[in-house]
Automatic annotation (TrEMBL):
GO terms for cellular component: membrane. Gene3D superfamilies: Phosphatidylinositol 3-kinase Catalytic Subunit, Chain A, domain 1. One of its GO terms (biological process) is autophagy. This is Uncharacterized protein. The keyword Membrane applies. The keyword GTP-binding does not apply. It is found in: Membrane.
Length: 90
């Protein structure tokens, strides 16, 4: 058994957007967006089903290609309006 198949079996997370929209529709929509905005990357963001967070007001984002993952993560957290508390251990 490959690492990918064992990881796939362990994964229980449901992707709502993926289940609601068939592959061909998602692919066509992605191609259309990439043609219209070649310098942007279409990204779908969903929270984990058991996360104790409120739902995002939108799932689809057009991310500039030069934005780092850390910067994108910061923007998503900002949308959630989560106060991040830092605990320093001395």
């Amino acid at each position: 058994m490959s690492a990918y198949s064992s990881l796939k079996e362990k994964s229980t997370m449901k992707w709502v957007y993926k289940e609601e929209n068939p592959f061909e529709k998602r692919r066509a929509e992605g191609e259309k967006i990439r043609r219209k905005y070649p310098d942007r990357i279409p990204v779908i963001v969903e929270k984990a089903p058991k996360a104790r967070l409120r739902d995002l007001d939108k799932k689809k984002y057009l991310v500039p290609s030069d934005l780092t993952v850390g910067q994108f993560y910061f923007l998503i957290r900002k949308r959630f309006m989560i106060l991040v508390r830092c605990f320093y251990i001395s």
